[in-house]
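Replying to the earlier thread about multi-chain prediction with a worked example.

Input:
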Amino acid sequence: MRKFGLTQFAMLAPALGLLVFIILLPSLYVFWLSFTESTYGKAPVFVGLENYIAIWNDRYFWRAMVNTLIVVNVIVYGELILAFVIASVLVKGVPFRRLILAVVLMPYAISEVVAVVIWKFLLDPDIGALAKAMAGAGLPDINWATNPTHGLGLVSLISIWLNLPFTLIIIYAAMLAVPSDLYESAKIDGASPWQGFRYVTLPSVLPAVFVALIFRYIISFRLFSEVWLLTAGGPARTTEVMAIYLYKQSFTYASFGKGSATGWVMVMVSGLIAAGYLHLLYRRGFRQNA
Amino acid sequence: MPESWLSIALRALVIGLLLIWSVVPVSLIVLSSFKPTPDIFTYPPSLLFEPTLEHYRTLWEKWPDFFLTLRNSAIIALCAMTLTVFSSALAGYVYSRYRGSALAGSAVFMVAIRLLPPIVITLPLYPVVDFLKLSDSYTLLILLYATFFVSLGTMILKTFIDGIPEELDQAAIIDGATELQILWRIIIPLSAQGAVAASIFVFVYAWNEYLFAFIFTTTRAKTAPVVISEMMASLNGVDWGLLFAAATTQLLPVVTFVVLVQKYLIAGLTAGSVKG
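Result:
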């Protein structure tokens, strides 16, 4: 066993330094700001819980919260179901496997901004190829600018499109790792394909599913760009999500206290989601594989 | 048991839909950027057309800044990548080779702090950034991007370094090698795959990032995604051909990169999250 000393501390310093100075200290400062009232050019004044009470009583806050929770669940479970279906096909072996994987990863490399350009064009009621195909099939137009359900639906679609590669790779890698003799013995015992999936695949990949799920929950909870670029929260603030609400409180209405309080609500919700993940990580993570 | 015809057809259908879903939206944009304007709007989308560079010419003439912001994006992404891999390799090495409860605590901190939504720190950073004269600078974006990926980078590199037998270090220590020599001569060469995997994540993120660039840049350090969003929001109607030319220029380098290095990307994804 080697001894941890000054050299090792210095080696950790760049990574930890970045995290402390750029994330930890600012977030503590936000915590303090959330108990004060301040705006541009005005020093913070302590107001206790007033900001939290104010956002608690703000119906736009609740609208944003509900929107976020709905969209996040649609995104996360949508991805999960798609990833399961696709991974179980891929894992059986397909021709040109590497080529298919490379192609499937493509959306991962696309910027949210470009993704919004792409889907806006595809679904534009006047010029979009997909919109015209849908109209041809008798489906209604997607009016993301006027209909909040369509707006948030399109946001979810874009987000799934961008992030499916991530979820898919994790689930696929986990499925590949299931020993094939498990399937063999299940088959010998007379298990149907569904039973094989239910009693062999699912339990084996569950830890990976859990990790992918928590990851995606936390990341999609931050959702900002897709909404901002597509609807900017409109019409009439009906498609705001938490990050948009925070941005508007802070930068549009210049109410730094309420913006900060929203920030801490986001931190706490993320923390709740993450608690399970951290527990898992700590149990089988850095301490025990010594 | 021979596979039934139906199950093969179903699987082919899933793969077919998957390929359409992944490729068609992107290719349509890329193709359309070479179409004369009237051809962009034909339905069904035309595959046969007279290819033209007119939209790229317009882009060059009307938005010369776009190419400057593309250069900004490249500089920022490369620097953020270097900083992240450097910090992550050092930290990953220490986490792989040393034990202790303080160390375990700092590892948990590293993972936990990454759960914080990036938008939360924009508000408190604003005045600090102003005070330090870092607003609208490369440095700020480089630091921000590196910070948000240093945790993942460290986890990926730790996983790869864990795979290098510690006997190699021990032998080097007996030969009187210092920590930095071990790192430079043994660890870095043998964990190069991990470094590549970590680099891809940071590069793709920094090249494409919108939120921080939108909030913290105005002119000098503006990145390409921000300009594309401005083109999209243009008040006098969207010039789709121009928008597609800009989007294609922005996405082709990074998509090509990801497709070429997919092996490492997949290795990094599984190392960073599943084993993490």
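Chain A touches chain B through 94 residues (CB under 8 Å).

Feel free to reuse this layout for your own posts.
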